[in-house]
Amino acid sequence: MFSQTAEYALRAAVYLASQEGTPRTTQEIAKATQVKIAYLSKVMQSLGRQGLVQSQRGLHGGFTLARPAEELTVLDIIQAVDPIQRIKSCPLGIQGHFNLCPLHRRLDLAMKLVEDALRKSTLAELLAEPERAHGVPIPLCSWPETE
Known about the structure:
- With about 150 residues, the protein is mainly alpha-helical.
- The chain has a domain at about 5-85 and about 125-140: Orthogonal Bundle (Arc Repressor Mutant, subunit A).
- The protein contains six helices and four strands, in the order αααββαααββ.
- The strands form two sheets. The protein has a two-stranded antiparallel ribbon with strand order 1-2.
- A hairpin with a 2-residue loop joins β3 (about 130-135) and β4 (about 135-140).
- The model is unreliable at about 130-140 (pLDDT under 50).
């Protein structure tokens, strides 16, 4: 349902959220998220243009989230790199079909529900909500150690 670009952006954003404001280089993020550095560079540029991450140059530079993880939602990240497409007019281009037919209304409603759910999910919540296996907490993701 979501593009590879959206997946990679989410991985990078969640990783940065887990770093608690410590700047991380593109190389560090790529290693931790298992995303090719060239692709990740483009994703990070998109996130930066949308004001979701900021970068600082020089020694100890890198990327950080531009806002607290409690304020950034999954929808913010997805919309920055590959916006969810809502159905606003007849996808078939039928003349005089101004209102959506029952099928397209349902599909658009489903997309709205997805948007609403993602809008309610912050990066901080993702980090604070470990999966459980047999009652034992498991971290959201195991990030490789940063050198």
